[in-house]
Amino acid sequence: MQPINCLGKLIVVEGTDGSGKSTTCKKFSDYINEHPEEFDGYKAMTLSLPYDDGSELYKKIRQLLAEENVPTDILQSMMIVNMKDTFNNIIIPKLENEKIIIILDRWLLSTLVYNIMNKGKIIDSSISHILSLLGIKSKSTYTDIGIGYRRNRLYIEDFSSYYCNLSAFPNRVFLLSPETGLLQKHSRCRQGDNMEVNDSIDKVYLSNSIYHNIFNNIITGEEELESFGIYSEDSSIYKKIESENRFKDPTRPTDEEEIEFYDYVLDFLKREVKILIQG
Asked: N or C: which end of the chain has fewer CB within 10 A?
């Protein structure tokens, strides 16, 4: 599946809890809407996933995110249904009919990361489903025929199209990758009823590591230790936004350094999206 060929553009900002995704998405969306002349007249909007559509499904997802010992395959499957509804009802119509840049806060990589972290079986399930669509009964007899499970690899395009039934693929996917001190600083702000199971700092560090492993594997196309066998047809879509050596003390970033980090991220996104628009 190639990125959707529509009037609008679909941008994804991925990253672990506390990495600054929501702040980044809002800052970038606000900047585009305040400076449309820099972006060929495009306007922007941000959507956070899971999307709050007021449905009972969404309410159940939010409830389960705060509970311990919820089967991760069930939770992630509910998230995929919510994502599909959001694509069908909001994202696709806007991309087809409006000169808009939709900025997604989370996407399928989050689904895979948290399923892996919580020892789920989404990858195996998706591979089996894709094989069944092809009428292939055994992985051991499978040969590379250009779809799905290829030499122990799961391609994110196949996961999106054949397992999640999403009819659009992003034009760009960015991984927000601040140093661990900023992750810890953000995670400490979460308390009480707003705490989710995955918000604890040890899980933040673990999910951040999985994001990096998957992203490195997609970008390089080379299988690494703990790569989880996830690949992409077009690695140029994926970009890392890193903050290495931006803080004097990586474990204790100051408020000023945090502001500078967001300025750096915003400049990075502006350059990349302008290149995308210019083709």
From this structure: C
